[in-house]
Design goal:
There is one protein chain. By secondary structure, this protein is an alpha+beta fold. It has a domain at about 10-130: 3-Layer(aba) Sandwich (Aminopeptidase). The protein has five helices and nine strands; from the N terminus they run E-E-H-H-E-E-E-E-H-E-H-E-E-H. The N and C termini lie far apart (about 30 Å). Bound molecules: coenzyme A. Coenzyme A binds next to strand 6, helix 3 and helix 4. Coenzyme A binds near residues 103, 114 and 144.
Amino acid sequence: MLHPEFPLKTARLRLRPQTMEDLEWQYDLRHLPEVFRYLPFGGESRDDLVEVMEKRVKMTHWTEEGGSVMLIAEEIYSGARVGEVCLFSDKQVQETGEIGYILHPDYQGKGYAAEAAREMLRLGFDDANLHRIVAKCNAENKASLHVMLKLGMRQEGIARSASFDNDEWCDLLTCAMLESEWKAQQAKQATT
Ligand SMILES: CC(C)(COP(=O)(O)OP(=O)(O)OC[C@H]1O[C@@H](n2cnc3c(N)ncnc32)[C@H](O)[C@@H]1OP(=O)(O)O)[C@@H](O)C(=O)NCCC(=O)NCCS
């Protein structure tokens, strides 16, 4: 079960649920080729995106069966939307979740992806009591891998030809963190 109180806050970001007012911003983001170069979705029509958004506005909590939390990240000082971040439960494996993140190119390179994703790890481990959280990316997506490693996740392996990104089969890389590793990281940070 997970019922976060929104907005969540990090040092520089406010994380809040998506609304239908984010539709145009999402439409623009999802038509930037550099954003969806390594992803299996993007480029939707406005009608299709309305359907996507209608589901996303409800992704704010988990029930006992699990669920998804899909949030917009805004810069606190400017109020600008910088990207989106998510945490969802694995339906097959109990106490396991997955995080994801997308940053608008105007706001990349500032450490925002790692900052927002770290809050998803906190939500998963501290609030949802997960045992293990994974993040997956196209094996060519060096920026995403760097974010995962920066978070302290460990690279576990590469599934060959496992994601259909941009009309071609691509290798899919997985990194993971265990609750014990998260707690050790938090304890270490508290003493430095
Ligand atoms: C992946 C993504 C979120 C990273 O965003 P970002 O704003 O660059 O992330 P951060 O600034 O938090 O950290 C990125 C780190 O990767 C490094 N990096 C960026 N591009 C890199 C590259 N091509 N190769 C290696 N490292 C790279 C940066 O230097 C930074 O590391 P540092 O803080 O140690 O200097 C962004 O590139 C993005 O949105 N891409 C498109 C969507 C996407 O692929 N999402 C991930 C899906 S799995």
